[in-house]
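Work Package 3 (structural annotation) set out to generate three-dimensional models for the target panel prioritized at the project kickoff. During this period the team completed the workflow that converts sequence records into discrete structure tokens, so that structures can be stored uniformly alongside our sequence database. As a representative example, we reproduce one entry of 416 residues exactly as it appears in the project archive.
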Amino acid sequence: MSGTPSAEPGHARADRGRALHALRSRDFRLFFTGQAISLIGSAAFTVALGWRTYTLTGKASSLGFVLALQAVATVATLLVGGVLADRYDRRRLMIASDVGRFVAVAALAALDAGGHLTLAWLLGFAFVLGLGEGFFIPAFGGMVPLVVDSAVLASANALVGIARQGSALLGPALAAAVYAPAGSATVFAIDAASFLVAAAFLLRARPRRLPAQPPAGARREVADGFRYVAGVPFLWVTIAISSLLLMVQVAPFQVLLPDLVKTQWHQGVGGYGLLASVMGAGMVLGALAFGTFVPRRHRAVLSFAIFAVNSLIVVVIGLAPWFTAALALQGVRGLFVGFGIAVWETTLMEIVPERLLARVISLDFFGSIGLMPLGYVLAAGIAGLASPGVIVSAGAGVGTALFVAALLWPRAREIG
């Protein structure tokens, strides 16, 4: 199949067991360190935003509307962000996005500290943050191949995965530790500062530049990305399934988790943050396992199987009567998700031409989260119709079925 990665046994042997080799690159170290700090701040922000929204309004549905508006804004700028990141300096785009998000989150922190925060303000700030993320995501994904040699791309993606998933461990723990004694405004201020730190590290980096491409018009450049994705079944099938998964499983889980923590497991913000931290720890181990073993055969089957198991675990979590059981399952789930994300991202970066990479990444996110705002709104709308655990489990059951169907797809066995 065109664009399908080969087994490359020699390349696999070179990567295997060398999960940390990308750190030899000065530019990757700068990129990695700044983004790791920013990711921790953002993960802490996510927990603080969820709990602050829930306590501000007392309704599980409120968080659904906040997250939906943020996702809508991200979708609105993703495709333009992909075109810009393939046309212009990705480093400068990331810095501009970091500075813009610093201003927005710092203003949110000041408003919260002054006691003037309302749901309307939260909705507005969520929209602004979403706009910045839409420009940032394609540039971030497209930057990785520009700060490392291709021979250590798997190592770089494993380390980025460790940073991302490690933030899911450290960020919620930071939020849980700071929120109770110092309040949500302090957590928001920490996140704002982390954006400036990330921008400062990027200013010192000198990534490789892409060959100049004559502008062909934004519409045509987006269409080029669509045509490429449409010509590689593994890409569009995975993106389509992810879009449905995020709507029926991920969105309800995010919206209803605070209510689930409080009403089913009788925990507070500490338990809410701990669930995210335990999953983050599992995801770190999963990303590290990928960097150590670097699978290069049957990667489509491997990806679909991993995410089918993940969805099945979410079904059990939603029905778990004990908080300790949910914690253990979150850790196991994190292991699968961390490994699966690293498989997908490395495959994407290896098979997609460099000149199209940011656009394909933007289409990946655009397709994946395109239905997520609808998922947030639906979750908010049905929040009172059944217990949060039942709703979460039902959505995850649909997610499991989607990936099982993908495993039965005959073409899956031909890929990777």
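The chain has 15 helices and no strands.
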